[in-house]
Amino acid sequence: MEQRVVREAGAMLAQARRVVVFTGAGVSAESGVPTFRDALTGLWRSFDAQRLATPEAFRDDPALVWGWYEWRRDTVRRARPNPGHVAVAAIEARVPSGVVVTQNVDDLHERAGSVAPIHLHGSLFAPRCSACAQPAPLPDEAAEEPGDGRRLAPPRCAHCAGLVRPGVVWFGEALPSAALEAAVEAASACDLLVTVGTSGLVYPAAEIPQVAARFGATVMQVNPQETPLDAVADVNLRGPAAEVLPALVQAAWGGADPA
Ligand code: APR
Q1: How far apart are CA 105 and CA 123, in angstroms?
Q2: What is the pLDDT of residue 151?
């Protein structure tokens, strides 16, 4: 990546008043959390993430899907925020108004210091009943990795004895309306949107950078690969988030701590 491009991007960031940082699985890749479109590795390598993340999969084999999400929760629990997450929190702390909108179901933005990121696709840490929707407690941490397609029977709801499901948005399900509304509102009011580590393929989340562009914001993209969001991005910073974002923060404000 050219230094000049990062310097110019940093100058834009330093001048922006209202900033939205929109993130996807790529921001957590360097923390060891696999992205969706990467083949699953290790013990779950024979499964297709996009097939497990559906209401049909849970209906057909609840223990398989619950076991997979418990494995993911365990993976995230062991992971640490990377310099990309830390830089996102620094941007949020530095700009006059900063909002983080994430498609990720991990909690690495929060653990890096972001304040109340908007989770468009729910959370691994908020299970609820699949029948009556009451929140359910998180099970105790798995003593051993629930790997190799290991089925784990989901807990039963304390209110109606329905099956507890992960509090995430599956393919074909509606996004939480309050989160989507807040994200659209922030995107339509911002002057700079930085999209990080998302393939831009999954709707309606992928609309968020497009909303910002339509309302006249500058769109900056951080991704090592080309994506459909290249079409709306005014600036493309091609590279991994954990390298590009700290360089961007450095270019915007130098090494100083946020005031
Ligand atoms: N830094 C930045 N970007 C990266 C990195 C990295 N180190 N590594 C990979 N990427 C990019 C890839 O090039 C790709 O464009 O991250 C993107 C990951 O794409 P997806 O796996 O499709 O993840 P995401 O866009 O978050 O998926 C959206 O789809 O599966 C559903 O609900 C799930 O929230 C998810 C949604």
Answers
A1: 4
A2: 86
The first and second tokens of residue 215, run together, are 């309302």
**Annotated catalytic, 121?**
yes
Mean pLDDT by 10 residues, the chain (259 residues): 91 98 96 77 66 92 92 92 98 98 98 97 98 94 59 95 98 96 98 97 96 98 97 97 98 73
- Main-chain phi, psi angles of 119, to 5 degrees: -100, 105
Query: What global pTM score does this model have?
Result: 0.94
Q: Does the beta carbon of 213 lie inside 6 Å of ligand 1?
A: no
- Its sign, for the CA torsion 79, 84, 90, 96, is negative
How close is the Cα of 133 to the center of ligand 1, in Å?
A: 28
The reply to whether ligand 1 has any atom less than 6 angstroms from the CB of 123 is: no
Q: What per-residue confidence (pLDDT) applies to 47?
A: 72
- Tracing tokens 């991704």 back to the chain, one arrives at 223
Q: Closest Cα to atom 23, ligand 1: which residue?
A: 25
CA gap 217, 114 in Å, rounded: 22
Residues present in the chain in total: 259
Q: Are strands 218-222 and 192-196 parallel, antiparallel or unpaired?
A: parallel
How remote is the CA of residue 27 from the centroid of ligand 1, in Å? 8
Enter the tokens of residue 79: 């992971």
Tell me, what's the pLDDT at 247?
98
- Residue (of 190, 177, 149) closest to 61 by Cα position: 149
**Closest C-alpha to ligand 1, atom 30:** 36
Q: Is the CB of 29 under 6 A from ligand 1?
A: yes
